[in-house]
Specification:
Keywords: Signal. This protein is of the alpha+beta class and 152 residues long. It contains 5 helices and 4 strands, in the order ααβββαααβ. It has a single domain, classed as Tetrahydropterin Synthase, Chain A (2-Layer Sandwich), CATH 3.30.479. The radius of gyration is 17 Å and the shape is elongated. About 14% of the residues have low confidence.
């Protein structure tokens, strides 16, 4: 595989990860201040539970025949009833996101066969294991809201 073959996939991955940085500013609450920084980083909420921590969309590239074929996009969140564990998870969000993107890349490269339906149960199990490993304990449950493939 040459660098010319890898370049489109690498560029797509970089752009997908950088897209949130170029999003519009958070809405103002009327007093001239934007939304709280923590809220600005959060994704769309799947539930109204106070124990729910939404995640920004996660993506991985899909390849077949050494070509970029699409993007796997996941919307998910963490249900964490324990207040202390929830605070720890929010502190460790960069490490969690890194682990999630790594697991999705492994799934896309080793477990997913282009043209088939993604296995939400397998993805959920992989993300749950990554969550437990990073946090060092159980108690945070990953909830999938959407698993979509955007074909190229």
């Amino acid at each position: 595989m040459t660098i010319r073959q890898l370049l489109p996939a690498a560029l797509a991955l970089i752009l997908a990860e950088a897209a949130p940085a170029f999003a519009s500013p958070p809405p103002s609450d009327g007093d001239g201040h934007g939304a709280a920084p923590q809220q600005a980083q959060r994704g769309r909420s799947i539930t109204s539970s106070p124990d729910f921590v939404p995640l920004a969309p996660l993506t991985a590239t899909l390849q077949a025949d050494y070509r970029l074929r699409g993007i796997l996009q996941i919307e998910a969140g963490l249900e964490i009833p324990d207040r202390r564990l929830r605070a720890r998870a929010e502190e460790m969000m960069p490490r969690l996101r890194n682990a999630y993107v790594t697991q999705l890349s492994i799934y896309a490269g080793a477990n997913y066969r282009y043209g088939e339906m993604p296995d939400a149960d397998r993805i959920s199990a992989m993300l749950q294991q990554a969550t437990d490993d990073i946090l060092g304990q159980e108690g945070a449950q990953i909830l999938l809201g959407m698993v979509v493939i955007h074909e190229r």
